């Protein structure tokens, strides 16, 4: 290898190691903030986080990095450096371009705006008054429209935003996929609505927190989550965070009058954590030590939550254990009744409370609105009306006020456009992976019934987790399923599951 | 103020803010490592800590910093910049000089040596074989002797090492103070040895961990430790750590067959924590947001542990509460018996297990050895013999083997010479402060009896804590007690307490 190329590869590794040390510190500081840091220290913590993030930003936009990338991202570089280095350089170049194309002054003004907008959103939401938030959102949308022009895009301007969360995803694909999905889901929603509803009263009995925690730990263990490379803590808004594959932390929330929050929440975050724990050691310290995309990450949490955790076979194994931790709550509840209750589906107003069957419809509402907003087909003032119409049309629910409607999510207040679709893509990918897995592991249910999750986890780790960000989402999907984004497996799964559960 | 001076002051503040953001991250990462970080992540954590520490080192030895310090540390600077800036600049200059005077290559070789030496020490200690450790210690001592020459000193070369932990302290002072102390302590040791020993069997009954934790929290609260600016966690080797005054964490250890470990350990670390929590907000983000010295820091932990926590009056208030958390362990134990038991004194082999009365003698043994070693009066090979002689002479104990003798402490393996004296100085200062406090608060015992620690804590905060590192240890002592380091108050305290406890 040419000397300058060799040297550039070595230096890039050092730069990435430095960035990942900062990221580890930032990750831990955030985890700590959300799991018990003393409340008086929040301001100083934010300042320190700001300082460290600025350092990472400086490195990622430095001339030194740019020079290294220019040497590596050449025909000769592609032939001679390792795949990990080359792919890392590609990602760093993408970030570099994004970060340097937007004029610094404008980006700073935008950041100040989003900080204010988040408080304004909170206020507006609690007052259920969209007009309080409208001027902020108008400014944010104006910036976003301008920024995509700086960054550049092919086809629809919204593609540039999708790319932040789901590299390679486009409006063309999503239009097709989401239309198909919506048309497939609506009859299911109707069917469930008309059907006899399951009994659910027993779900809401008192289940002591410590016992929920003990059961949650047991479930994580059975999922092959490695407690020597992680820990479980309590928080207000649960998340999983990977500082690196040997330190991946899960957090959960205990609601003593609804054990489902902790149990299904822990399984969900556990799915994210399995991804992070099983990224190949060879990627550690590079920017490839990350998930392939937000949608692929979500496919792992949702696969474990819905295809494992909400399956009948899983509870054949775990129901007696759950009973042993509960205070008699399930004594007169059959496994069948339990299974029906934890799989209750019904159209509702709030996305984060939605069930497996209706969730994607909440996302489609948001996708259609975001896309039209960025292209300029609609304006911010049109949002509440459009929102309410679409909720009525797709889910059949009446929105009583904006607080539980268009103002329910925080995302827009910090400019996260293009983020929502990934949630629905997570459902779609999970179902696609499940059908591929069924080919290789036909006795899936039997394994769950025996509490043997290892082969399932190994299959996911081998096909997905280990590759980190080396493979792009489309590539992973193609390699595993032989096709692109396809909503049919999800529709087949939901249709068969809910027609059987609700007898329609 | 001249423009360049003004600008230098502003820039120095920015540099210090950046350093303190890194320090906050480093502090949290260390705290996490010792309170529950997943064990598989230790290597990656060490690497990240290395990266961040290197950054701090780079800043503290940068030409940019040097230029700022040269502008500020002038006659004009002294007149015009704030006292905080000037004192900070002095400290930074001291660090800069130390860090730049030792040739980088030698310092790196020394660091590699100490890493190896620590493992060698551990091995040697468990084999009780000094010869295994001897070659490492010889090399370390050779480096230390060379480094003090690079750094420079006045009088005895050991002064340069004392200065790392106790700015301004000298061999001349310590020789006098420690001789006086040793001569005053030896008759007390003898007296206690001959006297009737207290009953202590009841101390070692089973005391459940959760209940110890609850009592420990209550005691911290009564000390005015602010839980909104801190937290209490479990660890193996207890410590307190201040990330900044609004985030000061205490750790403790629960021994279910000896509650004293947690209770007195928590009070001790709580004393350190009160210091850190009460440093003035105006110092935050500067290098002045720190204790004045290790000895002054230790004076605070020891004041709370011994003068508060081991006093009769304290237990008049807390004994019933302790009983309510214990499982009947103290049912037939009078307050008087309890008080005698937790104040048991007897000569022993191990420093970290030593009681209030004999502790300083362990330090004096180490001081005399270190001093002679650095000056070249003795060599490493002489250590075991000298150690055993001095232990016999000062404490009257026979050392059965080096594992519980000269090899017991980790300090020398990482080159921490000059550190030990600060522990004894902590005892001495604590007693000096106590006599000064008695002048201002003559009803000390009455306050403890009523559980009113606030005025005591306020007195310490006003005189010591709030100043951070602005005042040097000698200055603090002079301002509060009107004198320099004086062992007489400690001797008066120990003599009166132990003559009365042991009736001699």
Automatic annotation (TrEMBL), chains A, B:
Q: Which GO terms of the molecular function aspect are on file?
A: metallocarboxypeptidase activity; zinc ion binding
EC number(s) on file: 3.4.17.19
Q: Which organism is it from?
A: Salsuginibacillus halophilus
| Cofactor requirement | Zn(2+)
- This chain belongs to the protein called Metal-dependent carboxypeptidase
Family statement drawn from the similarity comment of this UniProt entry: Belongs to the peptidase M32 family.
> Keywords on this record?
Carboxypeptidase, Hydrolase, Metal-binding, Metalloprotease, Protease, Zinc
UniProt xrefs under PROSITE patterns: PEPTIDASE_M32
Instruction: Identify which residues the record assigns to the active site.
Output: 269 (proton donor/acceptor)
**Residues that bind Zn(2+):** 268, 272, 298
Q: How is the cofactor bound?
A: Binds 1 zinc ion per subunit.
InterPro entries in the cross-refs: Peptidase_M32_Taq (IPR001333)
